[in-house]
Amino acid sequence: MKYYMKSKLFKIKEDFWIQNEENEEIFFVDNKLFAVGLQFDLIKDEKTLYSVKETVISLLAKYQVKEGNEVVAEVNKKPSFMRDSIKIESKYGDLNVTGDIIDHNYEIYKGSEQIARIHKEVFTFTDSYNVETDFEDEAFILTLAVIVDDIIDKQRSK
Predict the structure, then answer these.
(1) To the nearest whole percent, how much of the chain has pLDDT over 70?
(2) Which of 125, 128, 122, 132 minimizes the C-alpha distance to 149?
(3) Taking the domain 2-156, which CATH number applies?
(4) pLDDT digits 0-9 by tens, 50-67
(5) Minimal CA–CA distance to 95: which of 79, 112, 81, 120?
(6) Out of 46, 85, 112, 135, which residue is the most buried by the measure of CB atoms under 10 Å away?
(7) What is the b/e burial string over 62-99, where b = at least 16 CB atoms within 10 angstroms of the residue's CB?
(8) Distances from the Cα of 148 to the Cα of 29, 45, 151, angstroms
(9) What distance in Å separates the CA atoms of residue 5 and residue 16, rounded to the nearest whole number?
């Protein structure tokens, strides 16, 4: 399945919809207004599927993903120079996100199997991504894609 994420041009609180291939709004990203670091809920049909909170005291990006009250993933940015590397310890096992800092193309792997691709569109006024996945939990993959976008934004602002 292919999804599209597009953030707003002028944002105080960056909430946005994730659309499917038919341009239907499927998932809603509800960012917390007065949060320190990234905090958001991924919502479908008015039900919160995942909640994310960034640990801001870490030198490298670090995030916790919850499903209800249960921590289901820890996301950690790893130091690298030319390629981004993000490690995820999750309820689905260990996952890795690798990508190109310049081209902003990322792949999510479970072992040696690619389970998703995240591609940033370059000639747009806002951050726009195409996410392709056939993974069993597409909402989880989309949650990770929002985290990857946050990591890219923070790298760009340094």
Answers:
(1) 87
(2) 128
(3) 2.40.160.200
(4) 999 999 876 778 999 999
(5) 112
(6) 135
(7) bbebebeeeebbebebeeeeeebebebebebeebebbb
(8) 14, 24, 5
(9) 8
148 vs 158: CA distance, rounded Å: 16
Give the residue extent of every domain in the chain: 2-156
Give the integer Cα–Cα distance in Å for 145 and 71: 18
pTM: 0.91
DSSP 21-59: TT--EEEEEEE-TT-SS-EEEEEETTEEEEEEEE-TTSS
Strand ranges, E, within 55-154: 62-67, 70-78, 83-90, 93-100, 105-110, 113-121, 128-133
